[in-house]
Design a protein that fits this description.
Elements lengths: L5 E6 L7 H8 L5 E4 L8 E5 L2 E5 L12 E4 L4 E2 L1 H13 L8 E4 L3 E2 L2 H14 L11 H9 L13 H18 L8 H15 L3 E3 L1 H10 L4 E4 L24 H7 L6 E9 L2 E3 L12 H9 L12 E3 L1 E2 H11 L3 E5 L9 E9 L5 E2 L10 E8 L16 H14 L3 E5 L7 E3 L2
Parallel strand pairs: 1-10, 1-11, 2-5, 2-10, 5-7, 6-8, 7-9, 11-15, 14-16, 15-19
Antiparallel strand pairs: 3-4, 12-13, 16-17, 16-18, 19-20
Helix pairs in contact: 2-6, 3-4, 3-5
The structure holds guanosine-5'-diphosphate, 6-O-phosphoryl inosine monophosphate (IMO) and magnesium ion.
6-O-phosphoryl inosine monophosphate (IMO) binds next to helix 4.
Length: about 425
């Protein structure tokens, strides 16, 4: 934790690395937690005291004693989904209205954005991205093309603004030949209720609020959504999301200068998963892949979709560490590999011309992973409380990763619960 600085926590793979759990664990050290990009495409899972929560738009710092949580300008927010999420939390005894602040500059996901998401996917036919269907792409498209509707717009003359945006979207859908509007009226009604509900929250100039927090010597933890390989610039384009998930996204998504960034926590799984379409060099199509999926419960937190599973890809991780300036790594789900005889990690790619590289190339569709094998530790680590208990084989695996990735692994997660977290000395 750095006073007067912003520490950034983000995913290094294709999302679902376990970011939500770690934000919850780290929050007590910070004054403020802030989301800087993405929207309800995210599903961040937290488990503690026998309860399990999945957060989509609300930052994962909301459970740790009265800390202010901010939804930043870089986020896209769906009022109906936000209302559902917030009301569920309030019902389970977690009041939000005082401590959750929403940026006026965050963009609104309209019901028609979600239909456009479906329509664009349908038009892509077999080149579908496999989006979460939450309207993320169309909302960010409207933002960048200067057509967006923002949270601040609800404060004045909202009905007319909404009607104009809806009409424009309807024209676009007509041009696409889209005719399926089943359930639209009901969704729109809920969405408009969501707008009214949002008015009960602090709608703020979050860039001022955040910089004032920093000026007063307090600390902020930024929570990334998705992962670096889903970044719109650096990910496996076009099979990506529509925001900058990398560390720089925290600067644009919250309004902070790059010189204010302190630690960059890179979250990685001890293996790798991906949900949706697109290249995944270390994907396993065999029994081992299925076993990882079963042991790791690798099913989407939002969509319930099967996650594709494979070995840890160190070429990909080195790239992610580079573009984010990661200062420390946090390794998740090591326990999932507890029973394996052999663990593999990809240390290079073989290219079509037969050469090998450790630098992530422009295209990763046709690369063949070169693996290094490690002896499995064959030990149930889920109840460990100190790194001294780690078996030698696991220590050797961790040491290799740290050397290859040239970055220390500071925290090791050995189960989904808040308590199953080993902070290394
Ligand atoms: P996020 O999107 O990065 O926050 O990650 P998700 O919540 O989508 O997916 C991570 C899943 O792994 C969740 O179901 C977590 O409860 C679970 N999880 C997190 N850390 C661990 C761990 O160390 N071991 C195990 N077995 N599960 C974990
Ligand atoms: P968290 O924050 C995993 C994937 C989708 C799809 C692509 C584009 O929980 O790690 P979008 O709806 O964003 O336009 O979909 O990105 N995707 C995620 N995959 N975890 C996520 O979030 C994701 N958010 C989007 O599956 O392939
Ligand atoms: Mg997730």
């Amino acid at each position: 934790m750095n006073t007067g600085k912003v520490d950034v926590l983000l995913g290094l793979q294709w999302g679902d690395e376990g970011k939500g759990k770690v934000v919850d664990v780290l929050t007590p050290k910070y004054d403020v937690v802030a989301r800087f990009q993405g929207g309800p495409n995210a599903g961040h899972t937290l488990e503690f005291e026998g309860e399990k929560y999945v957060l989509r738009s609300i930052p994962s710092g909301i459970f740790q004693g009265g800390k202010v949580n901010i939804i930043g300008n870089g986020v896209v927010l769906a009022p109906d989904l936000f209302m559902g999420e917030a009301q569920d939390l309030e019902k389970s005894g977690h009041p939000l209205k005082e401590r959750l602040h929403i940026s006026k500059k965050a963009h609104l996901i309209m019901p028609t954005h979600r239909i456009l998401d479906r329509a664009y996917e349908a038009a892509k036919d077999k080149n579908k991205v496999g989006t979460t269907g939450k309207g993320i792409g169309p909302t960010y498209t409207d933002k960048v093309s200067r057509n967006g509707l923002r949270v601040g717009d609800i404060l004045e003359n909202f009905d007319a603004k909404y009607a104009a945006h809806k009409e424009r979207h309807m024209q676009m859908l007509k041009a696409l030949g889209w005719t399926d509007f089943e359930g639209f009226e009901e969704t729109e009604k809920k969405w408009l209720e969501g707008i009214e509900y949002m008015r009960q929250f602090h709608i703020v100039d979050s860039e001022h609020e955040i910089n004032n927090v920093l000026r007063s010597g307090k600390s902020i933890l930024c929570e990334g959504a998705q992962g670096t390989m889903l970044d719109v610039d650096f990910g496996s384009y076009p099979f990506v999301t529509s925001s900058n998930t990398v560390c720089a996204g925290a600067c644009t998504g919250l309004g902070i200068g790059p010189n204010k960034i302190g630690n960059v926590y890179g979250i990685m799984k001890a293996y790798c998963t991906r949900v949706g379409a697109g290249p995944f060099p270390t994907e396993l199509f065999d029994e081992t892949g299925k076993l990882i999926r079963d042991l790791g419960h690798e099913y989407g937190a939002v969509t319930g979709r099967e996650r594709r599973c494979g070995w840890c890809d160190l070429v990909q991780l080195r790239y992610s560490i580079m573009v984010n300036g990661v200062t420390e790594l946090i390794m998740m789900k090591s326990d999932v590999l507890d029973g394996f005889d052999t663990i593999k990690a990809c240390v290079a790619y073989k290219l079509a011309d037969g050469s090998e590289t450790t630098e992530l190339p422009y295209e990763i569709d046709n690369v063949t992973p070169v693996y290094k094998e490690f002896k499995g530790w064959k030990t149930d680590m889920t109840k460990f409380t100190s790194e001294d208990q780690f078996p030698e084989e696991f220590k050797a695996y961790v040491k290799f990763l740290e050397e290859f990735l040239e970055t220390p692994i500071k925290v090791i997660s050995i189960g989904p619960d808040r308590a199953q977290t080993i902070v290394r000395k």
